[in-house]
Design brief:
Helix content: 40-55%
Oligomer: single chain
Number of helices: 4
Shape: globular
Number of strands: 3
Structural class: mainly alpha
Largest sheet: 3 strands, parallel
Strand content: 5-15%
Order of helices and strands: HEHEHHE
Length: 155
């Protein structure tokens, strides 16, 4: 998650997010998809963010890539649903103990932390538990999208 105002970001910075969040997702889906279609069984779980549903200042490119993940996931789900392949989107809000901020400058991290420290953030286990719930349902049941956030995260 490389945060910053679009006017100030280097093209290489936002290209890195596009390569990871969009191109990487497409490659990963494509690698597993043919086998799932042949077996008529499988589950793809794409992880996005609440930022794929709601925009935030200084998150222009990050939000854009996460909006793309939402759209790509839904389009793929519709494409393969008749082949008994489930496509699930998990979109968490603020999660603590991740490396997502490590690539940002000190001021950006300080600003983000001053906001996120005002409420109890999600734990990684919260996201894992929701993901497991969606995956463990029978193959005929598909949680299409699971949007999870801290109770106190208003935005």
């Amino acid at each position: 998650m490389l945060l910053g105002a679009l006017a100030d970001q280097e093209p290489s910075t936002y290209q890195k997010m596009i390569d990871t969040n969009i191109t990487g997702l497409l490659h990963g889906c494509q690698i597993v998809l043919k086998g799932m279609i042949e077996r008529k069984h499988g589950t793809i779980i794409n992880v996005s963010s609440i930022a794929g549903r709601k925009a935030f200042p200084n998150h222009v490119v990050y939000c854009g890539t996460k909006y793309a993940v939402h759209g790509l996931t839904e389009a793929l789900r519709e494409e393969v649903s008749q082949k008994n392949v489930r496509v699930i989107l998990i979109a968490p809000g603020v999660v603590g103990d991740t490396e997502l901020l490590a690539q940002n400058d000190t001021q950006t991290v300080t600003n983000y932390r001053s906001w996120s420290d005002t409420f109890k953030v999600l734990e990684v286990k919260d996201v894992v538990d929701c993901t497991w719930f969606a995956y463990s349902l029978p193959q005929h049941a598909c949680v299409r999208e699971l949007l999870l956030g801290p109770t106190a995260q208003a935005s």
